Amino acid sequence: MALKIATVPGDGTGVEVIDQAIRVLDAVAKPENLDVAVTPFDFGAKRYLETGHVLDDADLAELKKHDAIFLGAVGHPDVKPGILERGLLLKMRFELDQYINLRPVKLYPGIDTPLARKTTDDIDFICIRENTEDLYCGNGGIARINTPQEISTQEMIATRFGVERAIRFAFEIAKTRPRKLITLVHKTNVLTHCGDTWFRAFNEIGEADYPEITREYHHVDACCMYLVAKPEIYDTIIVPNMFGDIITDLGAAIAGGMGIAASGNLNPRFDRNDPTSGGPSMFEPVHGSSPDIAGKNLANPLAAIDTLSLLLTEIGRIQSNDAAISAGKRIKNAVLAVTPQFTGKTLDRSGYKCDEIATMIIDAL
Ligand code: IPM
Ligand code: MN
């Protein structure tokens, strides 16, 4: 059965980088015997400005007919901040139950890190961010607004169910990595309720089911310091939503910045034939739609191409599709073969055109 990918190129440079990533997909499908079907969707700022629709139930139902969603970038200067973030990105995460946000932090050869004396051996870990709970639930509200007695609350939510499924996923990732090391990042000294649920679940699950994995715990403030001072101490990080949002930006920065950061919003239990299983996973380069350089063939498609590699390996792993895993690895190897050509250059003004970079990847495949 064909692997069905829904693309959401979105706005600005999102369209260009998805176009180039799909060229790479086409080039890898044949030699890997990968049966794949791609269907584009026009969600994003452009459609919103024209129709007022961001993402409605009919759109979600269409997306659920696919195995994975591949998103370029959304955003436009004429759309008020928050509309697409909440109405599209967060809505997909919640409505499709994408409960894992997977963000690899790996410094590739030839890519510059702002950290002095750190090499590709030092910056190589995976962040697993819980993606459906915590402060992102938006529980709370504002009362007595615009009075001196105004009160606003936004509660931190941790359910044993939500925490446990994220932790179990993280242990499974840790198991596949040679160092067998996992670090929980939280702030248990202050967040004594949510932190406690996380801390107990982490240790109970680890002790019962993953005794071979070494467990560590860091407060989030200390983690920020270590990410800059000694990132080599991390291998697999498991972290709640809000802290995960923050530390993964720090992670992206030390691994070369937004030009290269890939991410997956995963629903590992999704099954196209089971309507109670949520929806497909969504993969996106972390960068935005860069309206300033849009349409000029200047965007760097490396993050999108690396995201495609993540899509294929993760969906392949979840669905036991060996051709997809193999195609994903092949793209990853091509990325690793091409990044040395960026030595001494920046990713966003490298001098290479968007389509040229994709051609370099295709040649390396
Ligand atoms: C991210 C982004 C989103 C988040 C925003 C755009 C809602 O910062 O994917 O990290 O906070 O999760
Ligand atoms: Mn973020």
List keywords for this structure.
40% helix; Isopropylmalate Dehydrogenase; single chain; alpha/beta; binds 3-isopropylmalic acid; two-stranded antiparallel sheet; 2 domains; globular; ten-stranded mixed beta sheet; 11 helices; binds manganese (II) ion; 365 residues
What structural class do helix, strand and pairing data support? alpha/beta
Share of residues in strands = 15-25%
The CA-CA distance between the termini, in Å, is 24 Å
The parts where pLDDT drops under 50 for at least 5 residues are none
Reported for the largest beta sheet, the result is:
10 strands, mixed
Mean pLDDT: 96
* Spatial ordering of strands, largest sheet: 2-1-3-12-11-4-5-10-8-9
What is the CATH fold-level name of the largest domain?
Isopropylmalate Dehydrogenase
H/E element sequence: EHEHHEHEEEEHEHEHEHEEHHH
Bound molecules: 3-isopropylmalic acid, manganese (II) ion
Task: Note down, in words, how this protein is organized.
The protein is an alpha/beta fold. It has 2 domains: 203 residues, Isopropylmalate Dehydrogenase; 143 residues, Isopropylmalate Dehydrogenase. The protein has 11 helices and 12 strands. The strands form 2 sheets. It has a 10-stranded mixed sheet, sandwiched between helices. Helix 6 links the parallel strand 8 and strand 9. It is globular. The site of 3-isopropylmalic acid (IPM) has 4 residues, from helix 4. 3-isopropylmalic acid (IPM) binds next to helix 4.
